[in-house]
């Protein structure tokens, strides 16, 4: 317009635009409050029959409100009364106003589609988390009778040779079962709780093996509140006794260590025995119930973000290594899984 030597009062035009789009903001908010939910679910026929007339009405109402605020517009034009200026503005901006209204309607529909998408995504995530929790809980429940059967078998073997030792083992087993029940369905627990359980389990095994096995337990103090899957160490320790230490008459070694490596927790269990090859002849897959259970639970908890390794080191010793992401407890243990956090 300036190239055509048409003077434009820029502050006045800016004020007119600001007020115009303020009115449009109010009108769109009213439409959202009144018809937002209906627009998100409406059919094409309803949109044409109801929303199209509403867009024309909104266009007229917006101009009717806006025109009295700017009697000097249109610029450089002979003075006009209210109705002539309204007709002039509708002729020039009526179509633009209808387009603005339908852009707002399109935004409302888009918000509706987005909300439905997020609701479906949230529902899918919740179902996935519930499935993961159910799978982990089933694996936990599989361990309990396995552990109880092996412990009772150990007590039974002592009944004929050392009644006092068998009695002490029964008391210790009762304490272990109490701890297991108190944990409930918690999936991740602080490391110090798991260590307490392991210490009692080691005391129970010490009643059976006595001086045949030398036990060592070392935990990095800064990891006491680190969260790990419940009952993740006991099956490994039990496996060490069943398939390694029980084969020795003396000089057995069991070393359990938990230390921090960067942003990870490294759990290691080393036991002496007959090595992996002797055991693999009895188990083609190289894994018992406990170890296979652990691998499944770690996969459900952490996906690919973990390491589980079994290897034979010097002198027939076997080492199990688990490297888990470091998560610190913030209070009461929660039923956390990889999919529900």
List the domain count as a whole number: 2
Please report the number of helical segments: 8
Name the overall outline: rod-shaped
CATH H level, superfamily name of the largest domain: Histidine kinase-like ATPase, C-terminal domain
Strand content: 5-15%
- Give the biggest sheet: 5 strands, mixed
> What do we call the CATH topology of the largest domain?
Heat Shock Protein 90
Please write the CATH class name of the largest domain: Alpha Beta
How much helix, percentage-wise, in residues?
Answer: 55-70%
Average pLDDT for all residues? 79
Q: How many beta strands in the DSSP annotation?
A: 7
Write down the secondary-structure element order: HHHHEHEEHEEHHEE
Structural class, by secondary structure, is alpha+beta
Low-confidence stretches: 333-341
Distance between the termini: 59 Å
CATH architecture of the largest domain: 2-Layer Sandwich
Q: What's the arrangement of strands in the largest beta sheet?
A: 2-4-5-7-6
Relevant terms:
341 residues, two-stranded antiparallel sheet, 5-stranded mixed beta sheet, single chain, alpha+beta, disordered C terminus
Describe the structure.
This protein is an alpha+beta fold and 341 residues long. It has 2 domains: 10-120, no CATH class; 162-325, Heat Shock Protein 90 (2-Layer Sandwich), CATH 3.30.565. It contains 8 helices and 7 strands. It has a 5-stranded mixed β-sheet. A hairpin with a 2-residue loop joins strand 4 (252-261) and strand 5. It is rod-shaped. The protein starts with 9 loop residues before the first helix and ends in a 16-residue tail after the last strand.
């Amino acid at each position: 317009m300036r190239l055509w030597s048409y003077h434009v009062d820029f502050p006045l035009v800016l004020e007119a635009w600001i007020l115009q789009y303020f009115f449009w903001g109010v009108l769109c908010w009213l439409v959202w409050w009144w018809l937002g939910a209906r627009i998100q679910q409406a059919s094409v026929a309803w949109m044409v029959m109801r929303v199209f007339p509403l867009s024309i009405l909104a266009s007229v109402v917006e101009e009717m409100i806006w025109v009295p605020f700017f009697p000097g517009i249109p610029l450089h034009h002979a003075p006009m009364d209210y109705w002539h200026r309204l007709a002039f503005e509708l002729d020039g901006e009526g179509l633009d106003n209808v387009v603005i209204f339908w852009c707002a309607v399109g935004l409302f529909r888009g918000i509706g589609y987005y909300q439905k998408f997020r609701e479906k995504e949230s529902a899918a995530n919740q179902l996935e988390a519930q499935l993961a929790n159910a799978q982990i809980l089933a694996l936990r429940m599989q361990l309990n009778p396995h552990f109880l059967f092996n412990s009772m078998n150990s007590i039974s073997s002592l009944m004929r040779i050392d009644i006092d030792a068998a009695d002490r083992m029964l008391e210790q087993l009762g304490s272990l079962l109490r701890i297991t029940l108190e944990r409930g369905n918690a999936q991740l627990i602080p490391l110090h709780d798991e260590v307490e359980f392991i210490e009692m389990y080691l005391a129970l095994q010490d009643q059976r093996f006595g001086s045949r096995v030398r036990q060592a337990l070392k935990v990095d103090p800064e990891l006491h509140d680190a969260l790990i899957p419940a009952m993740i160490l006991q099956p490994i320790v039990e496996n060490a006794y069943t398939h390694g230490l029980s084969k020795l008459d003396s000089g057995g070694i069991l070393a359990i260590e938990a230390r921090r490596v960067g942003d990870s927790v490294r759990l290691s269990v080393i036991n002496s025995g007959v090595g992996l090859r002797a055991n693999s002849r009895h188990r083609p897959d190289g894994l018992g119930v406990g170890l296979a259970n652990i691998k499944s639970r770690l996969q459900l908890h952490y996906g690919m973000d973990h390491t589980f390794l079994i290897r034979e080191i010097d002198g027939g010793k076997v080492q199990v290594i688990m490297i888990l992401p470091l998560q610190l407890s913030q209070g009461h243990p929660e039923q956390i899984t990889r999919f529900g956090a």
